[in-house]
Protein backbone atom coordinates (compact mmCIF):
# COMPACT_ATOMS: atom_id res chain seq x y z
CA UNK A 1 0.00 0.00 0.00
CA UNK A 2 1.40 3.40 -0.96
CA UNK A 3 2.32 5.76 1.87
CA UNK A 4 3.29 9.39 2.21
CA UNK A 5 6.62 10.29 3.84
CA UNK A 6 6.18 12.57 6.85
CA UNK A 7 9.73 12.45 8.23
CA UNK A 8 13.15 10.92 7.74
CA UNK A 9 14.39 9.00 10.76
CA UNK A 10 10.97 8.09 12.11
CA UNK A 11 10.23 5.88 9.12
CA UNK A 12 13.56 4.08 8.92
CA UNK A 13 12.86 4.06 5.10
CA UNK A 14 13.05 6.23 4.05
CA UNK A 15 21.85 13.13 -9.05
CA UNK A 16 25.13 15.01 -11.59
CA UNK A 17 21.85 16.46 -13.04
CA UNK A 18 21.21 14.40 -16.12
CA UNK A 19 24.53 12.59 -15.72
CA UNK A 20 24.56 8.83 -15.82
CA UNK A 21 26.28 6.50 -13.42
CA UNK A 22 26.96 2.90 -14.40
CA UNK A 23 27.79 0.55 -11.57
CA UNK A 24 29.18 -2.83 -12.51
CA UNK A 25 28.91 -5.97 -10.45
CA UNK A 26 32.36 -5.94 -8.86
CA UNK A 27 32.04 -9.34 -7.16
CA UNK A 28 32.09 -12.97 -8.09
CA UNK A 29 28.60 -14.18 -9.01
CA UNK A 30 27.94 -17.71 -7.84
CA UNK A 31 24.21 -17.79 -8.57
CA UNK A 32 22.29 -17.14 -11.76
CA UNK A 33 22.41 -13.91 -13.72
CA UNK A 34 19.98 -10.99 -13.93
CA UNK A 35 18.08 -10.62 -17.18
CA UNK A 36 20.03 -8.66 -19.80
CA UNK A 37 18.46 -5.23 -20.19
CA UNK A 38 19.00 -2.44 -22.67
CA UNK A 39 20.00 0.90 -21.20
CA UNK A 40 18.60 2.77 -24.19
CA UNK A 41 15.02 2.29 -23.05
CA UNK A 42 12.86 4.64 -21.06
CA UNK A 43 14.10 6.32 -17.94
CA UNK A 44 12.10 5.48 -14.84
CA UNK A 45 9.66 8.21 -13.78
CA UNK A 46 9.86 9.56 -17.35
CA UNK A 47 8.09 6.89 -19.38
CA UNK A 48 5.38 8.15 -21.70
CA UNK A 49 3.99 4.68 -22.39
CA UNK A 50 3.43 1.66 -20.20
CA UNK A 51 6.42 -0.67 -19.82
CA UNK A 52 5.50 -4.33 -19.70
CA UNK A 53 8.88 -5.80 -18.75
CA UNK A 54 9.35 -4.85 -15.11
CA UNK A 55 12.57 -6.84 -14.97
CA UNK A 56 14.19 -4.06 -17.00
CA UNK A 57 12.16 -1.11 -15.73
CA UNK A 58 11.49 -0.61 -12.07
CA UNK A 59 7.85 0.23 -11.35
CA UNK A 60 5.96 1.48 -9.51
CA UNK A 61 9.02 2.40 -7.42
CA UNK A 62 10.68 4.27 -10.25
CA UNK A 63 12.87 6.63 -8.21
CA UNK A 64 15.72 5.08 -6.20
CA UNK A 65 17.03 6.81 -3.08
CA UNK A 66 20.47 6.06 -1.67
CA UNK A 67 20.04 7.15 1.94
CA UNK A 68 22.77 7.90 4.46
CA UNK A 69 23.00 8.43 8.23
CA UNK A 70 25.18 10.63 10.38
CA UNK A 71 24.72 9.17 13.88
CA UNK A 72 26.48 10.88 16.78
CA UNK A 73 24.84 9.60 19.97
CA UNK A 74 25.67 6.81 19.95
CA UNK A 75 28.21 7.21 17.16
CA UNK A 76 28.11 4.63 14.39
CA UNK A 77 30.64 4.03 11.65
CA UNK A 78 33.92 5.88 11.01
CA UNK A 79 34.21 9.42 12.35
CA UNK A 80 35.04 10.70 8.86
CA UNK A 81 32.28 9.01 6.91
CA UNK A 82 28.53 8.88 6.74
CA UNK A 83 26.97 5.42 6.92
CA UNK A 84 24.47 3.57 4.76
CA UNK A 85 20.78 3.70 5.60
CA UNK A 86 19.46 1.91 2.53
CA UNK A 87 18.32 1.93 -1.08
CA UNK A 88 14.61 2.72 -1.40
CA UNK A 89 12.27 2.55 -4.38
CA UNK A 90 9.85 5.48 -4.28
CA UNK A 91 6.91 6.12 -6.56
CA UNK A 92 7.59 9.17 -8.68
CA UNK A 93 5.29 11.30 -6.53
CA UNK A 94 6.86 10.97 -3.10
CA UNK A 95 4.89 7.91 -1.96
CA UNK A 96 6.24 4.40 -1.65
CA UNK A 97 5.37 0.75 -1.12
CA UNK A 98 6.76 -1.31 1.74
CA UNK A 99 7.12 -4.98 2.67
CA UNK A 100 6.03 -6.07 -0.79
CA UNK A 101 6.84 -9.79 -0.48
CA UNK A 102 6.88 -11.20 3.03
CA UNK A 103 7.80 -14.63 1.66
CA UNK A 104 11.18 -13.13 0.78
CA UNK A 105 11.79 -11.33 4.08
CA UNK A 106 15.11 -13.12 4.44
CA UNK A 107 17.20 -13.39 7.59
CA UNK A 108 20.92 -14.10 7.93
CA UNK A 109 22.02 -11.47 5.41
CA UNK A 110 25.69 -12.00 6.20
CA UNK A 111 25.38 -15.70 5.43
CA UNK A 112 23.55 -14.94 2.17
CA UNK A 113 26.32 -12.60 1.01
CA UNK A 114 28.99 -15.12 1.95
CA UNK A 115 27.22 -17.95 0.11
CA UNK A 116 27.32 -15.92 -3.11
CA UNK A 117 30.97 -14.96 -2.77
CA UNK A 118 30.28 -11.36 -1.78
CA UNK A 119 32.45 -11.33 1.33
CA UNK A 120 33.98 -8.02 0.24
CA UNK A 121 30.51 -6.48 0.35
CA UNK A 122 29.86 -7.93 3.79
CA UNK A 123 33.17 -6.65 5.14
CA UNK A 124 32.36 -3.17 3.86
CA UNK A 125 28.88 -3.30 5.39
CA UNK A 126 30.34 -4.26 8.76
CA UNK A 127 32.05 -0.85 8.79
CA UNK A 128 29.71 1.40 6.83
CA UNK A 129 26.18 -0.08 7.21
CA UNK A 130 25.68 0.18 10.93
CA UNK A 131 22.69 0.11 13.23
CA UNK A 132 22.83 2.73 15.97
CA UNK A 133 21.53 0.14 18.45
CA UNK A 134 24.22 -2.37 17.47
CA UNK A 135 21.89 -4.81 15.69
CA UNK A 136 23.42 -4.68 12.21
CA UNK A 137 21.92 -7.96 10.98
CA UNK A 138 18.43 -6.95 12.05
CA UNK A 139 18.89 -3.58 10.34
CA UNK A 140 20.00 -5.24 7.09
CA UNK A 141 17.08 -7.66 7.25
CA UNK A 142 14.70 -4.73 7.76
CA UNK A 143 16.07 -2.79 4.79
CA UNK A 144 15.81 -5.79 2.47
CA UNK A 145 12.35 -6.88 3.63
CA UNK A 146 10.81 -3.41 3.67
CA UNK A 147 12.46 -1.90 0.61
CA UNK A 148 14.41 -4.45 -1.40
CA UNK A 149 11.39 -6.65 -1.98
CA UNK A 150 9.62 -3.66 -3.58
CA UNK A 151 12.21 -3.28 -6.37
CA UNK A 152 10.55 -5.00 -9.30
CA UNK A 153 13.81 -5.85 -11.06
CA UNK A 154 14.80 -7.98 -8.06
CA UNK A 155 11.84 -10.29 -8.60
CA UNK A 156 12.98 -13.91 -8.78
CA UNK A 157 11.57 -14.23 -12.31
CA UNK A 158 14.13 -11.64 -13.45
CA UNK A 159 16.99 -14.16 -13.14
CA UNK A 160 18.14 -17.01 -15.35
CA UNK A 161 19.16 -20.12 -13.41
CA UNK A 162 17.86 -18.41 -10.28
CA UNK A 163 19.28 -19.56 -6.96
CA UNK A 164 17.38 -18.84 -3.77
CA UNK A 165 18.10 -15.46 -2.17
CA UNK A 166 20.60 -14.28 -4.78
CA UNK A 167 18.52 -11.18 -5.46
CA UNK A 168 19.09 -10.05 -1.87
CA UNK A 169 22.86 -10.41 -2.32
CA UNK A 170 22.60 -8.26 -5.46
CA UNK A 171 20.56 -5.64 -3.58
CA UNK A 172 23.23 -5.17 -0.93
CA UNK A 173 26.04 -5.13 -3.47
CA UNK A 174 24.33 -2.47 -5.54
CA UNK A 175 23.60 -0.34 -2.48
CA UNK A 176 27.22 -0.54 -1.33
CA UNK A 177 28.59 0.28 -4.78
CA UNK A 178 26.30 3.30 -5.09
CA UNK A 179 27.22 4.51 -1.60
CA UNK A 180 30.92 4.42 -2.54
CA UNK A 181 30.27 7.03 -5.24
CA UNK A 182 28.68 9.43 -2.73
CA UNK A 183 31.37 10.54 -0.22
CA UNK A 184 29.20 13.00 1.67
CA UNK A 185 31.76 13.74 4.38
CA UNK A 186 34.47 14.58 1.83
CA UNK A 187 32.15 16.73 -0.28
CA UNK A 188 31.01 18.73 2.74
CA UNK A 189 34.54 19.04 4.10
CA UNK A 190 35.75 20.47 0.78
CA UNK A 191 33.27 23.31 1.27
CA UNK A 192 34.39 23.98 4.84
CA UNK A 193 31.40 22.19 6.34
CA UNK A 194 32.87 19.99 9.05
CA UNK A 195 31.52 18.46 12.26
CA UNK A 196 31.59 20.94 15.12
CA UNK A 197 30.07 21.34 18.55
CA UNK A 198 29.65 25.08 18.03
CA UNK A 199 29.43 25.96 14.32
CA UNK A 200 26.16 26.07 12.42
CA UNK A 201 25.46 25.99 8.69
CA UNK A 202 22.71 26.94 6.27
CA UNK A 203 20.73 24.48 4.20
CA UNK A 204 21.74 26.42 1.09
CA UNK A 205 25.44 25.94 1.86
CA UNK A 206 25.01 22.21 2.46
CA UNK A 207 22.99 21.82 -0.73
CA UNK A 208 25.62 23.77 -2.68
CA UNK A 209 28.45 21.61 -1.33
CA UNK A 210 26.70 18.41 -2.34
CA UNK A 211 25.19 19.81 -5.53
CA UNK A 212 28.64 20.86 -6.76
CA UNK A 213 29.26 17.17 -7.37
CA UNK A 214 25.80 16.58 -8.87
CA UNK A 215 25.45 19.37 -11.45
CA UNK A 216 23.53 21.45 -8.95
CA UNK A 217 20.78 18.88 -8.33
CA UNK A 218 19.49 19.05 -4.75
CA UNK A 219 19.21 16.22 -2.25
CA UNK A 220 16.87 15.61 0.67
CA UNK A 221 18.33 16.74 4.00
CA UNK A 222 17.18 15.31 7.31
CA UNK A 223 17.64 16.97 10.70
CA UNK A 224 16.84 15.94 14.26
CA UNK A 225 16.61 18.73 16.82
CA UNK A 226 18.26 21.02 14.31
CA UNK A 227 21.24 18.71 13.73
CA UNK A 228 21.97 17.21 10.30
CA UNK A 229 21.65 13.43 10.45
CA UNK A 230 20.43 12.18 7.03
CA UNK A 231 21.04 12.73 3.34
CA UNK A 232 18.94 11.14 0.60
CA UNK A 233 20.38 11.03 -2.92
CA UNK A 234 17.70 10.60 -5.59
CA UNK A 235 18.07 8.75 -8.90
CA UNK A 236 16.00 7.53 -11.81
CA UNK A 237 17.20 4.39 -13.60
CA UNK A 238 17.53 3.15 -17.16
CA UNK A 239 17.36 -0.63 -17.23
CA UNK A 240 17.40 -2.83 -14.16
CA UNK A 241 18.53 -1.68 -10.75
CA UNK A 242 21.10 -4.50 -10.78
CA UNK A 243 22.94 -3.47 -13.95
CA UNK A 244 21.33 -0.27 -15.26
CA UNK A 245 22.37 3.35 -15.38
CA UNK A 246 21.51 5.59 -12.45
CA UNK A 247 20.64 9.13 -13.52
CA UNK A 248 20.71 11.85 -10.89
CA UNK A 249 17.24 13.25 -10.16
CA UNK A 250 15.64 15.92 -8.01
CA UNK A 251 13.73 14.76 -4.92
CA UNK A 252 10.33 13.22 -5.70
CA UNK A 253 8.48 15.40 -3.25
CA UNK A 254 9.14 17.92 -0.50
CA UNK A 255 10.75 15.95 2.29
CA UNK A 256 13.66 17.88 3.81
CA UNK A 257 13.29 18.39 7.55
CA UNK A 258 16.15 20.83 8.18
CA UNK A 259 15.71 24.54 8.93
CA UNK A 260 17.07 27.10 6.48
CA UNK A 261 19.68 28.34 8.95
CA UNK A 262 21.34 27.33 12.21
CA UNK A 263 21.88 23.69 11.20
CA UNK A 264 24.24 21.83 13.51
CA UNK A 265 26.62 19.16 12.18
CA UNK A 266 27.79 17.50 15.35
CA UNK A 267 30.98 15.43 15.66
CA UNK A 268 30.73 11.73 16.32
CA UNK A 269 31.65 10.71 19.85
CA UNK A 270 32.84 7.54 21.54
CA UNK A 271 35.98 6.90 19.48
CA UNK A 272 38.79 4.96 21.11
CA UNK A 273 42.09 6.50 22.11
CA UNK A 274 45.40 5.12 23.30
CA UNK A 275 48.95 4.83 22.06
CA UNK A 276 49.66 4.68 18.32
CA UNK A 277 49.96 1.16 16.98
CA UNK A 278 49.33 -0.61 13.71
CA UNK A 279 46.30 0.68 11.79
CA UNK A 280 43.05 -1.12 12.47
CA UNK A 281 39.37 -0.34 12.29
CA UNK A 282 37.43 0.05 15.49
CA UNK A 283 33.70 -0.08 15.68
CA UNK A 284 33.46 3.69 15.36
CA UNK A 285 36.36 4.88 13.23
CA UNK A 286 39.41 4.01 11.20
CA UNK A 287 42.30 4.83 13.46
CA UNK A 288 46.03 4.64 13.91
CA UNK A 289 45.53 4.36 17.64
CA UNK A 290 44.87 1.28 19.67
CA UNK A 291 41.37 0.89 21.10
CA UNK A 292 40.88 1.92 24.67
CA UNK A 293 41.02 -1.14 26.91
CA UNK A 294 38.85 0.11 29.70
CA UNK A 295 38.56 -3.11 31.66
CA UNK A 296 34.97 -2.11 32.31
CA UNK A 297 32.08 -4.29 33.39
CA UNK A 298 30.95 -6.87 30.85
CA UNK A 299 27.39 -5.67 30.40
CA UNK A 300 25.20 -4.52 27.52
CA UNK A 301 26.94 -3.70 24.23
CA UNK A 302 30.68 -3.44 23.82
CA UNK A 303 33.90 -4.40 22.05
CA UNK A 304 36.36 -7.08 23.13
CA UNK A 305 39.78 -5.43 22.91
CA UNK A 306 42.95 -7.53 22.79
CA UNK A 307 46.24 -6.76 24.56
CA UNK A 308 49.60 -8.48 24.28
CA UNK A 309 52.45 -7.62 26.61
CA UNK A 310 50.32 -4.86 28.11
CA UNK A 311 49.82 -3.08 24.77
CA UNK A 312 46.40 -2.91 23.09
CA UNK A 313 46.40 -4.38 19.61
CA UNK A 314 43.17 -4.96 17.74
CA UNK A 315 39.98 -6.61 18.85
CA UNK A 316 37.70 -9.59 18.29
CA UNK A 317 35.42 -9.63 15.26
CA UNK A 318 32.02 -11.27 14.97
CA UNK A 319 33.20 -14.88 14.54
CA UNK A 320 35.40 -14.54 17.63
CA UNK A 321 38.75 -14.26 15.87
CA UNK A 322 41.39 -11.63 16.60
CA UNK A 323 41.94 -9.00 13.92
CA UNK A 324 43.90 -5.75 13.64
CA UNK A 325 42.63 -4.55 10.26
CA UNK A 326 38.93 -5.31 10.50
CA UNK A 327 35.86 -3.98 12.23
CA UNK A 328 35.48 -4.60 15.94
CA UNK A 329 32.28 -6.59 16.43
CA UNK A 330 29.64 -5.32 18.79
CA UNK A 331 29.25 -7.99 21.47
CA UNK A 332 26.25 -8.31 23.75
CA UNK A 333 26.97 -9.38 27.32
CA UNK A 334 24.00 -10.81 29.21
CA UNK A 335 23.99 -11.84 32.87
CA UNK A 336 23.84 -15.59 33.41
CA UNK A 337 24.14 -17.01 36.93
CA UNK A 338 27.35 -15.75 38.51
CA UNK A 339 28.76 -14.70 35.13
CA UNK A 340 27.61 -13.63 31.69
CA UNK A 341 27.18 -14.92 28.18
CA UNK A 342 28.43 -13.25 25.01
CA UNK A 343 26.95 -13.06 21.53
CA UNK A 344 27.49 -11.25 18.23
CA UNK A 345 25.47 -10.79 15.07
CA UNK A 346 26.64 -14.27 14.04
CA UNK A 347 25.24 -15.99 17.14
CA UNK A 348 26.20 -17.20 20.60
CA UNK A 349 29.80 -17.37 21.78
CA UNK A 350 31.45 -20.33 23.46
CA UNK A 351 34.75 -22.10 23.94
CA UNK A 352 34.55 -24.91 21.40
CA UNK A 353 37.40 -27.46 21.29
CA UNK A 354 39.55 -24.95 23.14
CA UNK A 355 38.84 -22.04 20.76
CA UNK A 356 36.74 -18.92 21.32
CA UNK A 357 33.95 -19.19 18.74
CA UNK A 358 30.80 -17.24 17.89
CA UNK A 359 28.22 -18.31 15.35
CA UNK A 360 25.09 -20.24 14.49
CA UNK A 361 26.93 -23.51 15.09
CA UNK A 362 27.19 -22.68 18.82
CA UNK A 363 24.21 -24.35 20.48
CA UNK A 364 25.08 -23.56 24.08
CA UNK A 365 26.80 -20.33 25.12
CA UNK A 366 29.70 -20.49 27.57
CA UNK A 367 29.20 -18.60 30.82
CA UNK A 368 32.22 -16.32 31.14
CA UNK A 369 33.37 -14.32 34.16
CA UNK A 370 35.54 -11.26 34.74
CA UNK A 371 38.89 -11.39 36.54
CA UNK A 372 40.41 -8.01 37.45
CA UNK A 373 38.52 -6.45 34.55
CA UNK A 374 39.64 -9.10 32.06
CA UNK A 375 37.56 -11.73 30.29
CA UNK A 376 37.91 -15.15 31.92
CA UNK A 377 36.90 -18.64 30.80
CA UNK A 378 36.80 -21.42 33.36
CA UNK A 379 38.28 -18.99 35.88
CA UNK A 380 41.33 -18.09 33.78
CA UNK A 381 41.89 -14.69 32.11
CA UNK A 382 44.74 -16.12 30.01
CA UNK A 383 44.04 -16.47 26.30
CA UNK A 384 46.39 -17.43 23.51
CA UNK A 385 46.99 -17.38 19.75
CA UNK A 386 49.49 -18.95 17.38
CA UNK A 387 50.85 -15.52 16.43
CA UNK A 388 50.17 -11.82 16.83
CA UNK A 389 47.39 -10.80 14.47
CA UNK A 390 48.67 -8.54 11.73
CA UNK A 391 47.22 -6.90 8.63
CA UNK A 392 44.42 -8.96 7.14
CA UNK A 393 45.44 -12.16 8.96
CA UNK A 394 42.96 -13.28 11.60
CA UNK A 395 44.12 -15.37 14.53
CA UNK A 396 42.05 -17.92 16.43
CA UNK A 397 41.86 -17.23 20.16
CA UNK A 398 42.47 -20.24 22.41
CA UNK A 399 42.09 -20.98 26.10
CA UNK A 400 44.94 -23.52 26.10
CA UNK A 401 48.61 -22.57 25.82
CA UNK A 402 49.88 -21.40 22.42
CA UNK A 403 52.89 -19.31 21.46
CA UNK A 404 51.29 -15.86 21.95
CA UNK A 405 49.69 -14.81 25.25
CA UNK A 406 46.95 -12.22 25.31
CA UNK A 407 44.25 -10.73 27.49
CA UNK A 408 40.81 -9.45 26.53
CA UNK A 409 39.03 -6.46 28.07
CA UNK A 410 35.66 -4.82 27.58
CA UNK A 411 34.91 -1.43 26.03
CA UNK A 412 31.29 -0.35 26.41
CA UNK A 413 29.62 1.27 23.40
Automatic annotation (TrEMBL):
<dbReference type="Pfam" id="PF00445">
    <property type="entry name" value="Ribonuclease_T2"/>
</dbReference>
<keyword id="KW-1015">Disulfide bond</keyword>
<feature type="active site">
    <location>
        <position position="143"/>
    </location>
</feature>
<dbReference type="InterPro" id="IPR018188">
    <property type="entry name" value="RNase_T2_His_AS_1"/>
</dbReference>
<dbReference type="GO" id="GO:0003723">
    <property type="term" value="F:RNA binding"/>
</dbReference>
<dbReference type="GO" id="GO:0005576">
    <property type="term" value="C:extracellular region"/>
</dbReference>
<dbReference type="InterPro" id="IPR057328">
    <property type="entry name" value="RNaseT2L_C"/>
</dbReference>
<feature type="active site">
    <location>
        <position position="85"/>
    </location>
</feature>
<feature type="domain" description="RNase T2-like C-terminal">
    <location>
        <begin position="297"/>
        <end position="411"/>
    </location>
</feature>
<comment type="function">
    <text>Rnase which modulates cell survival under stress conditions. Released from the vacuole to the cytoplasm during stress to promote tRNA and rRNA cleavage and to activate separately a downstream pathway that promotes cell death. Involved in cell size, vacuolar morphology and growth at high temperatures and high salt concentration.</text>
</comment>
<keyword id="KW-0378">Hydrolase</keyword>
<keyword id="KW-0732">Signal</keyword>
<dbReference type="InterPro" id="IPR033697">
    <property type="entry name" value="Ribonuclease_T2_eukaryotic"/>
</dbReference>
<feature type="active site">
    <location>
        <position position="147"/>
    </location>
</feature>
<keyword id="KW-0325">Glycoprotein</keyword>
<keyword id="KW-0540">Nuclease</keyword>
<dbReference type="GO" id="GO:0006401">
    <property type="term" value="P:RNA catabolic process"/>
</dbReference>
<keyword id="KW-0255">Endonuclease</keyword>
<keyword id="KW-0926">Vacuole</keyword>
<dbReference type="InterPro" id="IPR033130">
    <property type="entry name" value="RNase_T2_His_AS_2"/>
</dbReference>
<keyword id="KW-0456">Lyase</keyword>
<dbReference type="GO" id="GO:0016787">
    <property type="term" value="F:hydrolase activity"/>
</dbReference>
<comment type="similarity">
    <text>Belongs to the RNase T2 family.</text>
</comment>
<keyword id="KW-0963">Cytoplasm</keyword>
<dbReference type="InterPro" id="IPR036430">
    <property type="entry name" value="RNase_T2-like_sf"/>
</dbReference>
<protein>
    <recommendedName>
        <fullName>Ribonuclease T2-like</fullName>
        <ecNumber>4.6.1.19</ecNumber>
    </recommendedName>
</protein>
<dbReference type="GO" id="GO:0005775">
    <property type="term" value="C:vacuolar lumen"/>
</dbReference>
<dbReference type="GO" id="GO:0033897">
    <property type="term" value="F:ribonuclease T2 activity"/>
</dbReference>
<dbReference type="Pfam" id="PF25488">
    <property type="entry name" value="RNaseT2L_C"/>
</dbReference>
<dbReference type="InterPro" id="IPR001568">
    <property type="entry name" value="RNase_T2-like"/>
</dbReference>
